[in-house]
Amino acid sequence: MTLTQHVRNGWYLGAWSDEIGRTLKQRWITDIPVCFYRLPDQTVTAVEDRCPHRKYPLSLGHLDDDGTLQCDYHGYRFDGQGVCVGVAEQADKPKAALRRFPLVERDDAIWIWPGDPELADEGLLPDTSWLTDPNWTHVHGVVPLKARHLLLLENLLDLTHETFLHPSSIGNAAVAATPIDVTVDGDRVGFSRRMIGIEAPPFYEKSCGLTSPVDRWQDGDFYPPGVFVLNIRVAATGTEEPDGFHMKVLYGMTPGRGNETHDFYALGRDYLIDDQELTRFQHEQQLAVMQEDVDALEAQEIMYATDPGGTAESSIKSDLAALRGRRAVAKMLTREQQAGGTRPRASA
């Protein structure tokens, strides 16, 4: 795997809604510094975090009560649309504007399109209504990852690693031993694994109160370039739908600066939604599993980064979804490059 450039004509999870307020927040996305903040009417906006005067980070400036953003290096001031409205304490009014990014705030998540704004299509976003559905409860956050986002993508599309990397929580021999069915719909890649009459992994014994044998389903969907949703069902063997325990896991795999990634996550369930102790336990387990993944992926990143010649890889049947995901991202990047890349930032 040598692909390290970032697709920009696509939706990425840029922030959780509760991360963004009237304080300026910088977050690098696809090698672009982005400044997030809310206007007085509470709508969220995101601009390139470089003042057009001398490229000083706007996130180091300040936000007035009326929504005017001031660069605190030389005093350039910008209105809520990113247009320069003057320079503090000076008569000059430069013809300058900030690059603003298409955003969608939905279900407590803020999605950003860092590429050509004319191509931003909300219809490409996954269904995340469960994040605000009163019949579900969830936890969410973001974990820093010092590895390229494609490594995280392949980690999620090939869950056989649960057997070996997470045996004390969500993994057991049945995951690696059970084949997957893979589907491709345009750029979207999906997989399904049905484990029937298996031993209950420790996490599901504790959080669902189940004993072996159980039926466990994993249905994953990758929405290129950086969103993955896993639907999980666990039930006593022989239990038919809709009975059983249902969970969802959302990952926003958002490239940051260089080969760093923002590993956004949300873990939801539709049972015992008022059980705060269960919520605490599941959140702790989610973070522990993610830390095991982070450790593995950061070790992988070193190996890829120090192998510029690209030593030949070996693949097997269980890699099919991951390879399809890798191919989907590569195709998106090729289309973007052939179309001339993304539009330049606003300037004057």
UniProtKB/TrEMBL annotation:
Residues 11-112 form the Rieske domain. The keyword Iron-sulfur applies. Coiled coil: none annotated. PANTHER family: 3-KETOSTEROID-9-ALPHA-MONOOXYGENASE, OXYGENASE COMPONENT (PTHR21266:SF60), IRON-SULFUR DOMAIN CONTAINING PROTEIN (PTHR21266). PROSITE patterns: RIESKE. This is Rieske 2Fe-2S domain-containing protein. Keywords: 2Fe-2S, Iron, Iron-sulfur, Metal-binding, Oxidoreductase. InterPro entries: Cholesterol_7-desaturase, Rieske_2Fe-2S, Rieske_2Fe-2S_sf, VanA_C_cat. It comes from Streptomyces cellulosae.
